[in-house]
Each structure stands twice: as structure tokens, then as C-alpha cells.
């Protein structure tokens, strides 16, 4: 390092300070502190600013005065590093075995309980332990591996729940190479919550064939696997083509009885990835049409009466309503065109 401010006097001071190392030869830390004290004194005689002294020597002004005072009062012993051991140490407490066993048993029975709940339980049983003591015992039990930390228990069970949720006996992701070419190759199914405005609401199951745009729907008081199975049976009966695959989201109503129903009927069941409603875009669009065209009209009271009105709208939707995606044809007209047969005058599906 080139010393522009101090120059040669600093080198001379370093040589003088090295002689002091012999005084503290028994302790290299004492010798080093003596050398730094001498360097600071020499630099200050040359009127070197304290900020530069601190950079050159490596000690602050407060440290210099503290060392100097201890050297004057205690001689070389004052420059020895002081022990950093706390003046007061926590006494090692040996807990009674019955207390350890009781707290361990309570935590194993209630894996998410912390020191407060366990402490409250112990107080009811006659123990006189503070909440902090219970916390120290729990920490000891966790370190020794006798109980599992609450965070580890929650993380492990969260992963287990995700694994259980993802395991479905029949449903699977739609293969990338699967393409719907014929009517019935893929039917999208979804649920719609409808607020009737009088404090009540209903659940509508909606289905649409992705090729012909033929659609159907059913209203229920709730969306469950049993009501979904009932809608599946209605869908199979009404659909003018053979259904080969159905695509749904991950809702619980499309599990259990609904999934088993698809398996029994020999219908492929595809489940969408999480947070991807756009992959069921056709049925989502159909449900918007129901909101705009059907649920904006005055409806009767009761599920059965609303279902009756819905049947009339579905007949209009499938037989008469033009679809832009079908070149202005209605779904039944488009199906008839594909089959190269005439369009029936009356629907046999409702």
C-alpha cells in the first residue's frame, strides 16, 4: 500500500512498534494490540485524521482509548481479550420423567398443538409448569427426535393430501394427440351457479359436444357426485350421437359416483389441469349464453318448473338457433348434414 499522507514516518513507527511485540511475546494478540497502539500514537503525532488512522491501522477511536486505558490500569494483562461468556448462565434443569412422557404423549395425540395449548391441558391435570418451560421441553423433544415439529407435520400432510387428491382411479389427462373429429368424440361438461335473486340459487350441469355444438343442461339444488351421475345418465339418453369421451375440471362433483358411471358406460373421462378453464372453452361459452338468454327471463319457482322451461329453451337452441361456428346452422341441422339425412320436424330428444 502506498502511503501518500504519512510516508516514511509510518514505516519508522511500525519498526518501533515491532519492538513492543517482545513484551507480549507470550500472547500474539497482546503483541498485535501493542503494535497498533504505538502506530496510532505515531500517526496522531503527525496529525493524521482519525478516519485515515482507522483505515490504516484497523481500529476505531473508541477502541484505541479503551485499550490505552486498560493498559495504563492493568499493564499488559489489560490487553488480553476478555471472555465473552455470559455472566449469568441458565441452569440446566432436569425435568421429571413423568412430565416429559406426558408432554410427549399430548403432542403425539395432537400434532399441531403448541406450548400454550399443551400448557393449558397440563394445568387442568395439576401440573405447575409455565408456558416457557413447556416450550423448552417441546424443543428438547423435537431435537431428540421424539416428537415431530408442527411445521414438518403440516408440510408432510399437505403433500399427502395433494397426492390423494391427484389419484383418481379412472380419470386422466387428455392426451395431446387426442383430437375430436366426429360428433361424440369429446363432450365438455361443467357446472354453473345461478343466483335466482330471492336468496336462493341452483346448480346447473351443462354439456356441449365440441364437434356439433349440441348442448344440454340440467338444474339441481346442489352439485354433488350423485347429481352429476344423474345428469350423466340424462346426457347419454338425450345425446343424438354416441359419447366416447367427456372432459371436466377437477371439481369434486366429477369424482366418485360420476367417475364410476363413466367407467361403467365405457366413456373416457378427461380431467383438466388446475386453473385452466380455457381448455373447456366451449361449455364455458355455452353457460354464458344461458346467463344472457335464459336466466334473464322471468322464471317459475321450483327446480322442476325451471327444468321444464329449460327443456323448451334447449329445443330452441339445438333445433333453430343459428350458430356462427356451424355456418349459420343449428346443431341438429349440422348433425343431419353430417349424416346426409333430412332434418326431423320434431325433436325426439326432449
Automatic annotation (TrEMBL):
It comes from the Bacteria. Keywords: Plasmid. The keyword Ion transport does not apply. The keyword Chaperone does not apply. Gene3D superfamilies: Ribonuclease H-like superfamily/Ribonuclease H. Residues 179-339 form the Integrase catalytic domain. This is Integrase. It comes from Meiothermus taiwanensis WR-220.
